[in-house]
Write a structure and sequence with these properties.
There is one protein chain. With about 425 residues, the protein is α/β, with parallel strands linked by helices. It is built from 18 helices and 8 strands. A 4-stranded parallel beta sheet has the order 2-1-3-4, sandwiched between helices. The chain has a 4-stranded parallel beta sheet with strand order 6-5-7-8, with helices on both faces. α13 links the parallel β5 and β6. About 50% of the residues are buried. The structure holds iron/sulfur cluster (2 copies). The site of one iron/sulfur cluster (SF4) has 10 residues, from loops.
């Protein structure tokens, strides 16, 4: 490991990140009818990207803990909490570090990998520097090769993810991976704290309950977003989801409970006009501060009522079933929860994703789907025709939007999105 390989991020680069994030957060505050309870989530992202000071978010009462970076929703966060550490999600959404990332990621590689590697290699953004260890599951090709590059700067634990989740052999292999992660966390924690660490059934139970409480609030928010009257802009919901990556889960859950309470009793009505087309964003994740796509959709007259990305709906939907209280049963339940319901297109077959999309279209009364493909993201792009065919059965149109983090294509995308929303408007009028 050679850290740092490059010089530290220049203060110019940090200023660029701060400006990009600050602009996005300021735009959120200017949206009409913004709920007051959105403030802690905006504040969290401000701490991370604008002030470059994430520690108050992570350490309650100023007591620091080991911080472990994770690069995918397939990492069981409950184990990290039960071991006494804090997980943070590092998938990068900043534009300016992509140039530095291109030193390690091929030009046509995905911008998420470029941005994350640029931030890791250059150092300077504290959330990346706080992590001595990062866990990277071997989902898509980009993640596997990305892990190898990240290991030049940080200790990397790879988590081998099977691609055929229905087979017994895959499920057993995955359980072994999760068991090995538990053992590794215990050894790691002893090495950094000097104290013997054991993940106990009680500790794991607490961590599972903590995560379940977060999932309950996420499902509550989703029900609120399913209402005819849109209570929240999609971008605001994405701010909530984005802040999860960097907040201690208990604090995040409490902030979301307060937001849900405010939305439930809201008298201000819908954030948009009655006939505004309701959209679902599917495909590659939209990661803060790169909100190019949701910004364009909502500026051009649509409202995003749900997304299926793993920085959104997929991230915290399925609870762990854990009827038994012994450690082995808990581990089996935990491994199953992370593998079986996951509809990441790195799995094949992945028919469950189509079922989930159809369910969302129905529950959230979706008029149209924007299918987001980050350039170089082959797994999501592969599934677009399959998704389009499934949506035809529900008579819901889809448009595929391929883009990266650069602002250069904004006007071209604006024209396409505007045209798509216009079609949805006409369809809505015709059907009424
Ligand atoms: S899309 Fe797949 S690989 Fe990427 S974070 Fe989600 S689950 Fe992980
Ligand atoms: S799933 Fe797509 S966006 Fe995520 S790391 Fe792989 S290529 Fe990049």
């Amino acid at each position: 490991m050679n850290k740092p390989l490059q010089s530290k991020a220049s203060s110019r680069q940090l200023r660029q990140i701060s400006r990009e994030a600050g602009r996005q957060l300021a735009a959120m505050q200017e949206l009409s009818n913004a709920p007051q309870a959105l403030a802690p989530f905006i504040d969290a992202l401000e701490h991370v990207f604008v002030a470059n000071d994430p520690e108050p978010l992570l350490f309650k009462d100023g007591q620091s803990k080991p911080v472990i970076g994770i690069y995918c929703i397939l990492v069981p966060e409950e184990l990290i909490y039960a071991a006494g550490a804090i997980p943070i999600r590092l998938c990068g959404g900043c534009t300016s570090p992509c140039a530095a990332g291109e030193e390690f990621v091929p030009r046509d590689g995905c911008p998420l990998a470029k941005s994350s590697l640029g931030l890791t290699a250059q150092q300077g953004l504290a959330v990346y520097d706080l992590c001595d260890v990062v866990i990277i599951p071997t989902t898509c090709d980009a993640k596997r090769k990305f892990a190898e590059e990240v290991s030049r700067f940080q200790e990397v634990w790879m988590l081998e993810v099977p691609h055929l989740k229905e087979s017994e052999i895959s499920q057993q292999a995955w359980l072994q991976q999760v068991m090995a992660l538990k053992d590794r966390l215990e050894v790691y924690m002893k090495s950094v704290t000097g104290k013997r660490t054991k993940i106990t059934p009680k500790g794991l139970e607490q961590a599972i309950c903590q995560q379940t409480a977060a999932q309950e609030q996420v499902r509550r928010l989703q029900l609120l977003r399913a209402r005819e009257s849109a209570l929240l802009w999609g971008r605001q919901a994405m701010i909530v989801a984005g802040a999860y990556s960097f907040m201690e889960v208990g604090a995040w859950t409490e902030a979301l409970r307060v937001l849900n309470d405010e939305l439930e009793t809201r008298t201000a009505g819908s954030v948009c006009a009655e006939k505004t087309p309701r959209l679902l964003i599917a495909g590659s994740p939209v990661i803060f501060p790169n909100f190019k796509l949701p910004n364009l959709i909502e500026e051009m007259g649509g409202v995003v009522v749900i997304d299926e990305s793993c920085v959104g709906e997929r991230m915290l939907y399925d609870p762990v079933g854990h009827p038994e209280r012994d450690l082995r049963s808990q581990m089996i339940a935990l491994a199953a929860r992370y593998l079986m319901p996951c509809i990441c297109p790195s799995f094949a077959p992945n028919e469950d994703r189509l079922v989930t999309l159809k369910r969302m279209i129905k529950t959230h009364k979706v008029d149209g789907v924007i299918y987001h493909v980050l350039k170089g993201c082959v797994v999501y792009d592969f599934e677009v025709t399959r998704v389009e065919r499934a949506l035809k059965e529900c008579d819901v149109p889809l448009v595929r939007i391929e883009t990266d983090y650069s602002p250069e294509d904004v006007e071209q995308l604006r024209t396409r999105i505007e045209a798509f929303i216009e079609v949805l408007h006409l369809r809505k009028e015709k059907n009424q």
